[in-house]
Amino acid sequence: MPPMEKNRTVQILKKAAADQYGVLAAIAYNIEQLTALVRAAEARRSPLIIQLFPSTLKQLPTLAHAAAQYVQTSSVPLSLHIDHAQDEVQILEIMDTLPVDSIMVDMSHYDKEENLSRTRRLAKECHARGIAVEAESGRINGGEDGIADTGDLEALFTTEEDVENFINADIDILAPSIGNIHGDYPPSGPDLHYGRLQSINKQTRGRVLVALHGTNDFPEEIMQRCIRSGAIKLNVNKLLLEVWNEHYRKNAANTTLVKLIDEGMDVLQKETERWMDVCGSSGKA
């Protein structure tokens, strides 16, 4: 089995854990967003994890190859991660056909034992190909574009037993449930259990790296508190992309397409650079 120490995602996150900063793991839905994210990383001299949803791989089959080209040629550390892969057939196909560095094997829509057994089996397949594995312990409520909604399933906070079970399933990155949700938070905002996150980080003792899902509409202070509590891989979607969406909503009707794209990329790059500063990854490349 290829050693995971040489895996790009693992290398990026281990350095961040050692130096106590967070790394954006940013969703891109198209080539323009992908390009803006990479430009931001190079401008801020920051590492970056590029994330694609399985649904995007079907919509835009060449986007993963474009992302992999950036990974190979960028002047800063990048990696390519497939987020929330929930179909075992597609996961096996991704492993064998796409140049990815890591995959979130998301079996959280199954009960605990089934989740663990499927995760363990798929982690073995990934590791045989040098691909790092992320998994979700407990269950994070909600859904967003690209992720199947958990529907009527109840959110389950990550327990100490969950942490040990998933470490024993041989994963590399753990995404705990600490009150975070996929999609938008209620008007009262996030109600996160920082103490639980700190305990999970302490319990892992570096055996796995900790990811944080559900960052929509986070203020800067919540993100920084999560980083201080042990979250290293910071999954971001709407947090960055809402400025892109807003730009298009306001300007699509009265702006030429080329200008609309150029301005949208500039807006997204600036917002990504801002969050790299917030997370402490700027200048760490």
From TrEMBL:
Zn(2+) 1 binds at H84, H182, H213. Zn(2+) 2 binds at D106, E136. Pathway: Carbohydrate degradation; glycolysis; D-glyceraldehyde 3-phosphate and glycerone phosphate from D-glucose: step 4/4. It catalyses: beta-D-fructose 1,6-bisphosphate = D-glyceraldehyde 3-phosphate + dihydroxyacetone phosphate. Binds 2 Zn(2+) ions per subunit. One is catalytic and the other provides a structural contribution. The active site is at D83. It is an enzyme of class 4 (lyase). The keyword Zinc applies. One of its GO terms (biological process) is glycolytic process. InterPro entries: Aldolase_TIM, Class_II_FBP_aldolase, FBA_II. Its EC number is 4.1.2.13. One of its GO terms (molecular function) is fructose-bisphosphate aldolase activity. It comes from the Eukaryota. Keywords: Glycolysis, Lyase, Metal-binding, Zinc. Catalyzes the aldol condensation of dihydroxyacetone phosphate (DHAP or glycerone-phosphate) with glyceraldehyde 3-phosphate (G3P) to form fructose 1,6-bisphosphate (FBP) in gluconeogenesis and the reverse reaction in glycolysis. Belongs to the class II fructose-bisphosphate aldolase family. This is Fructose-bisphosphate aldolase. It comes from Lophiotrema nucula.
